[in-house]
Model the fold of this input.
Amino acid sequence: MYNFDFVKPATVDEAVKALADDEAQALGGGQTLIPTLKQRLASPSKLVSLTGIAEMKGVSKQGDTVVIGGGTTHRTVAEEAASAYPGLADLAGRIGDPAVRNRGTIGGSLANNDPSACYPAAALGSGATIVTNSREIAADDYFQGMFTTALEEGEIITEVRFPIPKKSAYAKIAQPASRFPLVAVFVAQYADGVRVAVTGASNNGVFRWSEAEAALSGNFAADALDGLTVASDDMIGDLHGTAAYRAHLVGVMAKRAVAAAS
Amino acid sequence: MPKDGGIGASSKRREDIRFLTGAGNYTDDINLRGQAYVFFLRSDIAHGTINNIDTSAAEGMPGVVKIFTAEDFAGVGGMPCGWQVTDKHGEVMQEPGHPILATGKVRHVGEPIAAVVAETLGQARDAAEAIDVDITELPAVIDMKDALKTDAPKVHDDLKNNLCYDWGFVEENKAAVEEAFQKAAHVTTLELRNNRLVANPMEPRVAVGDFARGTGEHTLYTTSQNPHVIRLLMGAFVLGIPEHKLRVVAPDVGGGFGTKIFHYQEEAFVTFAAKACNRPVKWTSSRSEAFMSDAHGRDHVTTIQLALDADNNFTALRTDTYANMGAYLSTFAPSVPTWLHGTLMAGNYKTPLIYVNVKAVFTNTVPVDAYRGAGRPEATFQLERVIDKAAIELGVDAIELRRQNFITEFPYATPVAVEYDTGDYFATMDKLTEIADLAGFEARRKESEARGKLRGLGVNCYIEACGIAPSNLVGQLGARAGLYESATVRVNATGGLVVMTGSHSHGQGHETAFPQVIAEMIGIDESMIEIVHGDTANTPMGMGTYGSRSIAVGGSAMVRATEKIIAKAKKIASHLLEASESDIELKDGAFSVAGTDKSVAWGDVTLAAYVPHNYPLEDIEPGLEETAFYDPSNFTYPSGAYACEVEVDRDTGQVTIERFSAADDFGNIINPMIVSGQVHGGIAQGIGQALLENCAYDENGQLLSASYMDYAMPRAYDMPFFSVDHSCQTPCTHNPLGVKGCGEAGAIGSPPAVVGAVVDALRSAGKDVTHVDMPLSPSRVWAAMQ
Ligand SMILES: Cc1cc2nc3c(=O)[nH]c(=O)nc-3n(C[C@H](O)[C@H](O)[C@H](O)COP(=O)(O)OP(=O)(O)OC[C@H]3O[C@@H](n4cnc5c(N)ncnc54)[C@H](O)[C@@H]3O)c2cc1C
Done:
């Protein structure tokens, strides 16, 4: 690590001010950022910890929406969203290991937008709204490719609003080393149609599989996906799986998610 | 009734209390007054010419004590290689220089180029970033077969080519083997790869150098499996420090698995730098550094062929292996694919003719050396896999094919130069059949199929050679070291014992198991015995721990020393009891005169030895301390049979291990619980190799699996509940304990069982698959099904 200053504001406003400095960076649970700092791959002059901001924490049900504070840990979501949105709670409860879930936050995960992260699939698959200190961003506009989002410099995710589906599920196969998704699919059925979001697979990060959405909107059953395939051109090919394998897994995981949806 | 102490008791591991409660003393726990820290600037280029290293900006950085480059080591020897292999033409291997810091060229990613010693590690690292290294990148050689092409770039410009040696074994058998292949009724050929692994002990390597200006004594604290070997190699060959001025301490060590046998540059560096800087210098490897500086394991590419007659008897075996040495020769690297591999090719079978060819190749990768099993897993894997393939081709039962070809009479001289003293391969196979419930497999397969899963069974045997010896033989084979072991048994006046052993425990449980042997011999409580190891200042010269040698060789030395103690104690007792020495019996910690009720307690005799008022001073010296050096007459040959059952997900190719059973013959057993633990750990590593672990480079020599994000370590939930049995015991005939060693068996016997099980599962779905290369990742298994 390089040296940095550390501040721990108590409100979003204070945090926004602290982040206005050049080379200041937000620190959520640190589960991505701290390893990056340790490897000296980032050198912020100041870390602005968001963990002291009470207004950014917690899970609540507001009508047909689950609202999660941007600083809420995966563990809290796993526990507190379980009755309102079981598919989402299940996803949160399967991220990493207990240590990661006790520290890592939804805001950090969505801000980072790792192409193999879990939360982006839930946010995109639910048509969630990402709320920041300055605006609201629809999930469809938010994810802009691997590690790229609509967030501006210094913008903080304060809240994420998930419309509650009729049914949902998350199916993932783990990359053998990191145990992040090798490919995972989040499926959510809403009154106005089905959303299918795929993570881990594409060089462009999380994406919606529109053919599957169309098929499932007509018939929400695993065999509605029979014969549907995704092209392997843009799929990630690496040590852990070829592009063709990942393309194949998209279909398998989507079917499993549909079969498991409740 | 299980015993509650002595040989055969499952005494609880006494060392675990300190390990598990944070009371251990690991090398990183050692912090010396005035200590400075070193950070190594390592190459991020696999192959290149160093044009210039400019340290001027770094010199003035805060906290910098001194910056070292190759120039500072001009008068110092390079890293020595401890084994010289002679090739099939009678030529000695090509042996390149191995500098402490890169000299002229860099030859692998991770090679240290410069070292910064500073007040803090952070300052050392900051300064290292300010060093300007100008390197002209050269094409890297990564693939072994490419490296041997005539136009391949040379890893070492001063060598003829990238071929370290071309070894033939047994060269005299070659023609007869060829002939047997001509006459064979069936020949099975299998090409396979034994994947490169990174050992990943929980504790990364650490080294602290210290120099006492007043006495001129050097001390190295290091994470080593064999401190005396390090003292000899580093003192005599690298730094020119006489052994009486050099102390090497390897305190608690958190796992070794072979990778902490070797003498590394960082050890020589901190020892040298401590004197040059006149203050202690400490290096602690980060996990990232470990991936690119710890010696790797395995990495063989092999073609094996098995010849059978019309009755399915094995008539000949031929194997061609390319063994990756990496960029330099690590300490024992040349021995692994040769003497630890070729000599094991007979396995459990009476194949009369065997020829082994091994080409050891230099590439621009991290050096490769011994890793749990070292050569023996590679031998077992190819042999057992080719037998499975032969059974498929011939349409016969693979277990029956093995049984039919088992060695049945012992001692048995193999055609690959070793003589097995004892074994009973039918017994372990029968035991396996029982504990693995092989009879119930078909029912379990149906049950899996009903759930939509494929189920497969893999069964194989293994033979291992432990306690490599005797020294005069290994000397002829090229070892530049002896392979005896030592023990000093010191009895204190009040009867307690301290045993100073040349073996080293880095998790194995010596502190528990060794006292069990002595407690049994004397008839006293284990708690009266303490094991001291890991410090050249207070242990006799010993060769350390690797190759499952500690109980067989180190334990035997301890037995010999204890026998001397008992003999002397009997003399003292005979004096105290005024009886003839030949009438003295030792039982339950007391000496008695046969046929009488006269006796004297162990403690009275030991006290007399140190307070010799009533003592035969004219016949024997006071004191009770004896040393023994034990050089075995042969290896020991543990063996066994392993079974693995897997389920394969048809859609994803994911493999889960459903059952794993091991029936081992380790000869006599000192502590069954510790032995089970060793087997469990070995199987876990074997499953790791078979399913998960893969050290991969890209074509430019960049390490793709350089962290746990990409190098897949096995985790507890990847493992089934193991069923292990070691009740089949054919004691070793040539050591006093009748023990064989158990440290590597699990890692040797398990990979072929896992692969065999997956192949069997795929075949049950009608796939024409005979082999899949490790690791059997979901991606590869799925591809094999397409
Ligand atoms: C061992 C391990 C296993 C893991 N396994 C998984 C897995 O299976 N699936 C998975 O999805 N993830 C996994 N993760 C990642 C984990 O979920 C992280 O917690 C998450 O990606 C980042 O969240 P964080 O709160 O820790 O963010 P940090 O690491 O603190 O920050 C990450 C980035 O987000 C920014 N940031 C943080 N909070 C906010 C905010 N509220 N608004 C704006 N920007 C913000 C930071 O500035 C930084 O750039 C794993 C991590 C580890 C260490």
About this structure: Chain A has three domains: 5-49, 54-163, 167-260. The interface with chain B takes residues 1-3, 39-40, 173, 176-178, 182, 238-242, 245, 248-249, 252 of chain A (CB under 8 Å). The first strand of chain A starts at residue 5 and ends at 7. Chain A has a mean pLDDT of 97.
